[in-house]
Amino acid sequence: NAGVTQTPKFQVLKTGQSMTLQCAQDMNHEYMSWYRQDPGMGLRLIHYSVGAGITDQGEVPNGYNVSRSTTEDFPLRLLSAAPSQTSVYFCASSYSMTGYDEKLFFGSGTQLSVL
Amino acid sequence: AQSVTQPDIHITVSEGASLELRCNYSYGATPYLFWYVQSPGQGLQLLLKYFSGDTLVQGIKGFEAEFKRSQSSFNLRKPSVHWSDAAEYFCAVGAGDMRFGAGTRLTVKP
Q1: CB of B3 within 8 Å of any CB in chain A?
Q2: Searching chain A, which residue's CA lies closest to the CA of residue B48?
Q3: d(C-alpha A18, C-alpha B47), whole Å
Q4: Which of A69, A72, B58, B100 has the greatest number of beta carbons closer than 10 A?
Q5: Is B74 exposed, middle or buried (0-12, 13-18, 19+ CB in 10 A)?
Q6: Contact criterion met (CB below 8 Å) for A106 and B47
Q7: Which of A33, A45, A109 sits opposite B43 (nearest CB)?
Q8: Is A42's CB within 8 Å of B51's CB?
Q9: Rounded to whole angstroms, how far apart are CA atoms A93 and B50?
Q10: β-strands A110-114, A10-13 pairing
Q11: Half-sphere exposure of residue A56, counting CA atoms within 13 Å on the CB side?
């Protein structure tokens, strides 16, 4: 059981480049989300999805796009990378977000540097 | 909007000593509250959670937390810390759009 898989683990971009961070889960979880982690700021929610075809913005959505065409996949797109987007990105999923089954499973993270 | 404050950025305790990590939250309704732990270079792992009922919740690795509505707090405790507990600890609140605190880094002295 792979859990939540993120790729790539490391990425270096130049300012203005675009890229997609991949996230896949094999637990049939309805809920998926993306966080960025910066020193002293904890994890900040970028976007989340409560099911295929449904996405919503979190605390820091600007500069990022998401889509959810399948239950398994939730890619995060950086449209035009900026140095302020240098961070560690975590994808997470949960069976439920409104009850006893609420528990986030995290991927191992993607370390992104924008030069 | 919901939010979480962890007042302590860094805490150092001796191995075998007791531990308490503080967490204060802001939430409009009865909160769903969580504690997660992150070891270096790893993702986060759930320690425990509170939804309703008993205000003292037990988690993995010998941790517990107490929900105090009057103080808007959900402090994490452990009676005797082990060297392997050194990590960063995050308190979180919410359902759907979960919000995390800035984290408390725990150092354990031999």
Answers
A1: no
A2: A103
A3: 36
A4: B100
A5: buried
A6: no
A7: A109
A8: no
A9: 18
A10: parallel
A11: 10
CA atoms within 13 A on the CB side of A99: 3
Which residue shows structure tokens 């913005």?
A57
Structure-token pair, residue B51: 């939804």
pLDDT by 10s per residue, chain B, length 110: 788 999 999 999 999 999 999 999 988 777 889 999 999 878 889 999 998 888 899 999 999 999 999 999 999 999 999 999 999 999 999 876 788 999 999 999 99
Tokens 């499973």 locate to: A105
The model's pLDDT over A40-85, given as tens digits with 9 standing for 90+, comes to: 888 999 999 999 999 999 999 999 999 999 999 999 999 999 999 9
**How many angstroms from the chain centroid is the CA of residue A94?**
13
Name the token pair of B46.
């759930």
Phi, psi of A70 (to 5 degrees): -130, 165
Is A38 in the B-facing interface, judged by CB distances under 8 Å?
no
Give DSSP secondary structure letters for B47-97.
EEEE-SS-SEEE-GGG-EEEEEGGGTEEEEEESS--GGG-EEEEEEE-SSS
